[in-house]
């Protein structure tokens, strides 16, 4: 996804003279094309993320459209106060990009994991929170974010994410995408973990005789309340999955919405439990560890289905 | 941009500053707004900027080519509000609801969208310089000829983000950025040189690659010299302005109780008398 980001941002810079890219000393060679074509609009801000975010806000308040890019913990929690005050409070149209989100950097340990960003940013007014699931969806929401005047956070993966929806059919901000139709269960998959949800749906159909609808979510805030209300009239239960802490994440947001609406719909929320992962490993290993991988999704759907069937009997 | 009104000599600036000092003290009494000492130390710097330096048009406060001023030490907002009103960004009558429920005028500058003349909603220290640096760099990118000025406090220089911005401004060779550090030697609960070892402050900014001048920040002649002498220097510029906290009111000067204390009616009258202003 980071290659798609570099490519798309260069294309956008060609046509929008307001666009500037700020990087926190990361992306070695990744932005060479942009740097060559638009040298005055690339800023390596060094390893000083608090300043970088403040600089971006100042630029946005002066008519530019800054895009801030570094590894997710350093473009989120490291400079949280600058995001809250300089960007959100000033309603400054900065696009904050966190690369290598979630467990993409599982091999680097928890300093480089990002499993808290949704919950923290959900509580910050004005900030739009986007989580594209593949390269085409990243390109689509990035284009849209830059044409709007809204402070935006975009959480992206690292590299090698499978393409789930073709470019021509990519969904815009706030649009859930149904990639598997089904009637026995509904899985809402947030961001790049969506590829695991699709694998799970295939296993559910082949091994368990269950047809599961899979919807890909690229927007955590604002939450599509109409979508959730519609699902409540179609399904007795949903499963949500996110590569993020269960505390305050997408699943809890949906659960709160359902509870407040008085709907009887049940929800199973898969996400990371309340702990740091001390061992290192691949992203696949980390997803397994936190029980958000395809087998864990299959298990959750099967158990949810059995529970509903038994209570109906 | 129109010229600032009716000011030619530095003695006129002293009169303006005295009047604004009195209004700040009176407003503190009426609205129970603290940080008097912090306001009084930097009034002269702001008066000089707003009457002599900034290319601004209060009737067109969002002109793209305006100079930007950021009060990075946002807790001196009571001083900034008086300066902005006097320069005509909004009527002085607007300040009558100072400190009341629903007022925009309190302890810190509100968001720029809420009040003409405000460039940054400061109050959390260490934010104004990075934002000002972003504004200064934006002038370069968009090829718009304006300059950015900021007033920081010495206590604010505790914040790491100040020094992050100092490093980047030097690396980017930003020539249209000037800051003044209101070096009144106090922060909220102690001497600023003792709390975090600030001295030698001018040497620190020099070492970070800035063009530095060191002046008496309550002397208009020295302020003038600092702003005028280094205009063509290609580096970012830092004026280390040695000031007196509570300057202009004898019983407030260099007494850190006035970081939080609110003056009585009698003290307001005494301040008026000392400032030569009709109370």
Task: Summarize this structure as a short list of keywords or feature phrases.
heterodimer, A: about 325 residues, alpha/beta, 7-stranded mixed beta sheet, 5-stranded mixed beta sheet, globular, B: about 280 residues, 5-stranded parallel beta sheet, two-stranded antiparallel sheet
Structure explained in plain terms:
The complex is a heterodimer of chains A (313) and B (279). Chain A is an alpha/beta fold and 313 residues long. Chain A has 12 helices and 12 strands. Chain A has helices at 2-15, 32-37, 49-61, 72-75, 80-89, 117-122, 135-147, 194-208, 225-234, 250-261, 283-289, 294-312; strands at 19-23, 42-44, 65-71, 95-99, 128-130, 152-155, 177-180, 185-190, 212-217, 219-221, 237-245, 266-272. In chain A, helix 8 links the parallel strand 8 and strand 9. Chain A is globular, with a radius of gyration of 19 Å. The model of chain A has no long low-confidence stretch (mean pLDDT 97). Chain B is of the alpha/beta class and 279 residues long. Chain B has 9 helices and 7 strands. In chain B, the strands form 2 sheets. A 5-stranded parallel β-sheet of chain B has the order 1-2-3-7-6, sandwiched between helices. In chain B, strands 4-5 form a two-stranded antiparallel ribbon. Chain B is globular and about 50 Å long. The model of chain B has no long low-confidence stretch (mean pLDDT 96). Classes of the chains: A alpha/beta (313), B alpha/beta (279). Chains A and B meet through helix 3 and helix 5 of A and helix 4 and helix 5 of B.
């Amino acid at each position: 996804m980071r290659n798609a980001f570099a490519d798309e941002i260069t294309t956008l810079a060609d046509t929008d003279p307001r666009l500037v890219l700020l990087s926190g000393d990361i992306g070695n060679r990744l932005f060479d094309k942009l740097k060559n074509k638009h040298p005055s609009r690339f800023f390596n801000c060094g390893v000083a993320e608090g300043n970088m975010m403040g600089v971006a806000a100042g630029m946005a308040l002066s008519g530019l459209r800054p895009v801030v890019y570094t590894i997710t913990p350093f473009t989120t929690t490291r400079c949280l106060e600058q995001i809250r005050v300089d960007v959100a409070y000033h309603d400054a149209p900065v696009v904050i990009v966190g690369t290598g989100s979630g467990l993409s950097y599982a091999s680097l340990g928890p300093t480089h994991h990002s499993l808290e960003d949704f919950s923290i940013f959900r509580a910050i007014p004005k900030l739009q929170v986007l989580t594209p699931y593949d390269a085409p969806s990243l390109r689509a929401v990035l284009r849209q974010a830059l044409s709007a005047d809204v402070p935006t956070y975009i959480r992206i993966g690292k590299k090698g994410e499978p393409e789930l929806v073709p470019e021509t059919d990519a969904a815009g901000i706030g649009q859930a995408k149904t990639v598997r139709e089904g009637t026995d269960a509904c899985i809402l998959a947030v961001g790049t973990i969506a590829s695991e949800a699709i694998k799970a749906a295939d296993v559910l159909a082949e091994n368990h005789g269950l047809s599961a609808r899979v919807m890909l979510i690229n927007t955590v805030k604002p939450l599509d309340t109409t979508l959730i209300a519609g699902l409540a009239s179609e399904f007795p239960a949903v499963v949500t999955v996110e590569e993020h802490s269960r505390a305050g994440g997408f699943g809890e947001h949906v659960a709160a919405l359902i509870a407040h609406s008085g709907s009887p719909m049940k929800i199973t929320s898969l996400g990371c439990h309340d702990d740091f992962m001390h061992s290192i490993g691949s992203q696949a290993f980390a997803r397994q560890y936190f029980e958000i991988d395809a087998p864990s999704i299959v298990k959750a759907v099967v158990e949810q289905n059995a529970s509903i069937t038994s209570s109906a009997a | 941009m129109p010229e600032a009104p009716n000011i030619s000599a530095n003695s006129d600036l002293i009169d303006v500053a005295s009047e604004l000092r009195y209004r700040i003290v009176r407003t503190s009494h009426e609205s129970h707004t603290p940080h008097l000492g912090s306001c009084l130390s930097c009034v002269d710097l702001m008066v000089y900027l707003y009457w002599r330096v900034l290319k601004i048009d209060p009737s067109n406060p969002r002109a793209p080519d305006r100079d930007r001023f950021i009060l990075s030490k946002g807790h001196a907002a009571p001083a900034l509000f008086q300066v902005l009103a006097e320069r005509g960004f909004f009527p002085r009558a607007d300040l009558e609801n100072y400190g009341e429920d629903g007022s925009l005028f309190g302890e810190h500058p509100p968001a720029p969208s809420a009040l003409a003349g405000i460039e940054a909603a400061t109050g959390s220290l260490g934010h104004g310089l990075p934002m000002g640096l972003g504004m200064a760099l934006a002038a370069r990118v968009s090829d718009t000829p304006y300059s950015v000025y900021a007033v920081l406090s010495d206590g604010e220089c505790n914040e790491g983000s100040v020094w992050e911005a100092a490093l980047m401004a030097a690396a980017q060779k930003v020539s249209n950025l000037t800051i003044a550090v209101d070096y009144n030697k106090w922060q909220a609960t102690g001497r600023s040189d003792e709390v975090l070892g600030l001295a030698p402050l001018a040497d620190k900014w020099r070492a970070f690659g800035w063009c530095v001048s060191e002046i008496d920040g309550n002397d208009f002649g020295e302020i003038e010299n600092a702003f005028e002498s280094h205009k063509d220097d290609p580096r970012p510029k830092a004026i280390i302005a040695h000031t007196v906290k509570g300057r202009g009111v004898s019983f407030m000067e260099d007494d850190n109780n006035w970081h939080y204390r609110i003056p009585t009616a009698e003290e307001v009258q005494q301040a008026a008398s000392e400032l030569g202003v009709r109370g």
